[in-house]
Amino acid sequence: MKASWDIFCCVVDNYGDIGVTWRLARQLAAEHDVAVRLWVDDLKSFERLWPSVQPQLASQWQQGVDICQWPLEWPAVQAADVVIEAFGCTLPEAYRQAMAVRTTPALWLNLEYLSAESWVSGCHGLPSPQPDRLQKYFFFPGFVEKTGGLLREGDLLARRQAFQADPQARRDFLASLGVTVPAGTRLMSLFAYENASLGEWLDALAADASPTHVLVPQGRVLGDVHAWLAVEALEVGAVHRRGALSVQVVPFVRQDQYDLLLWCCDFNAVRGEDSFVRAQWAGRPLLWHIYEQEEYAHWEKLEAFLALYVEGLSAEAGQALTLLWRAWNQGKAMGQAWGQVLQHWDELRANAEKWCARQAAQPDLATALVKFYRNWI
Ligand code: TRH
């Protein structure tokens, strides 16, 4: 009989929580032959990422996953063999009791947020002692050995490479979004939170000698784009030109289509957790808008990632990228840092592929979870 897995997702805000858990659920069902149930407290946010989700349904099947609305009144269900509590969301008490009365114990995993900080490898896989003989462990995704790795579907990189080697596939996908990019134009995507640095970056792109086309999926940064363009309406599809820069708002696409958007671009600005990882698999240089935490805790995460990412770069290119990322995340001037990044463009592009290959040499997160379970049984 297939092992059963329950994944619990509480949407705190934005799309990262559901983005990560949905990706994991799909991959477990598709590649590891396990029965996956995904409990989600906000199906409306889910629908944005995956429009075939019907928010009014208490349960529904999508992509081989049993998706259940996490109800206020918890139903009597049997606890699964493996229980994933994503990002510290608290399990319903009745479900905890259902775990405690199983004849064979359930494996309970607390799937944590992604971080490159060095303490992560020391905490990954540690037990979290519980009363009533429940067995809970911390499971940390990560970029280095002794962590749980990153979400990566088995065929992801082969699909990405085939797509990037096929100019017609790129043109067709962009055309489906209403986008045409003249040859020789740098294509960039911009997915970010509100950001005070944006205006200066767009100024630099507009003043550049080479043309740039920026695609902005509908979302939180649009207010800053709108203010910079100083137009009355910012409609999806319309192209706004300023000097060497053209800016176009594109629809928020289905999660698997967002990969294609990243693969099409020469440079991707991303945010949070899931888009950040997907941009790394795109093999192209990126700019990360990190999710801000209390007491500036995100800053150490940012620096820890940068320290790893620049390892393969010359000191000058590493410095240029570091300055750009710091400026973007502090709302500081971007013009000079962007100019320096352009000077090291080819090196940054080659490093993005190297980084992707280095990460792909580690087991992916879904495989690592399955292995953890097998070793634990
Ligand atoms: O949306 P995010 O900012 O999400 C989060 C949450 O805020 C979370 O609480 C926080 O802890 C975490 O970040 C760090 O960014 P993220 O993680 O990149 O999630 C966005 C998802 O949206 C991702 O799965 C990709 C998807 N997406 C689409 O499906 N279509 C699109 O057009 C775009 C732009 C994104």
Can you tag this structure with a few keywords?
single chain; 377 residues; alpha/beta; Rossmann fold; seven-stranded mixed sheet; 15 helices; 41% helix; 18% strand; globular; binds 2'-deoxy-thymidine-beta-L-rhamnose
Structure report:
Helix content is 41%, strand content 18%. By secondary structure, the protein is α/β, with parallel strands linked by helices. It folds into 2 domains: 4-150 and 363-376, Rossmann fold (3-Layer(aba) Sandwich), CATH 3.40.50; 156-360, Rossmann fold (3-Layer(aba) Sandwich). Helix 7 (198-207) packs across helix 13 and helix 12 runs antiparallel to helix 13. The radius of gyration is 21 Å and the shape is globular. The structure holds 2'-deoxy-thymidine-beta-L-rhamnose.
Separation of the first and last Cα atoms: 15 Å
CATH architecture of the largest domain: 3-Layer(aba) Sandwich
List the ions, cofactors and other small molecules found in this model: 2'-deoxy-thymidine-beta-L-rhamnose
CATH class of the largest domain: Alpha Beta
Report on the biggest sheet. 7 strands, mixed
Approximate shape: globular
Fraction of helical residues:
40-55%
Radius of gyration (Å): 21 Å
Q: Spans of 5+ residues with little confidence (pLDDT < 50)?
A: none
Mean pLDDT across residues? 97
